[in-house]
Amino acid sequence: MSNNLRLGIDIGSTTAKAVLTDESGNILYGNYKRHNAEVFSTLLNILREIEADHGTERNVTVLFTGTAGMGVAERTGMPFVQEVSASAEVVKRWMPEIRTFID
Q1: pLDDT of 18-67, one tens digit each?
Q2: What is the pLDDT of residues 81-98, one digit of tens each?
């Protein structure tokens, strides 16, 4: 079991999405929730679910995206990437044969 995980959190104007993967990109956790303008409490609930399922003794690299994700990243000092750039990177890495990506 790898101790190095990656957590991507996309917080938009209405929803919060999170995906936790291991170093190989295997999905260990995924969630999609409406936040009803309660961004931080929804994020905290997601993080508590991840902690309950995967513990606290692991290294997790976190990256935020999304319209509300930018504010969360700024407040927490965590990295942010624009969502189209993040999506393009996923397509490039996992589906290199794709020539066109429309957001």
Answers
A1: 999 999 889 999 999 999 999 999 999 999 999 999 887 889 999 999 99
A2: 998 998 898 899 889 999
Q: Could you tell me the CA-to-CA distances from 17 to 11, 53, 64, 68, 82 in Å, in that order?
A: 6, 17, 10, 12, 15
Spacing of C-alpha 63 from chain mean position: 6
Q: Are 67 and 17 spatial neighbours (Cβ–Cβ below 8 Å)?
A: no
Burial 27-60 (b: 16+ CB within 10 A, else e): ebeeeebebeeebeebbeebeeebeeebeeeeee
Task: For residue 86, give the nearest of 6, 31, 1 by alpha carbon.
Answer: 6
Q: Is a pLDDT exceeding 70 seen at residue 70?
A: yes
Which one, of 77, 59, 68, lies nearest residue 41 by Cα?
Answer: 68
Neighbouring residues of 79: CB distance < 8 A, sequence distance ≥ 6: 62, 63, 64, 73
- Token pair, residue 28, equals 């260990």
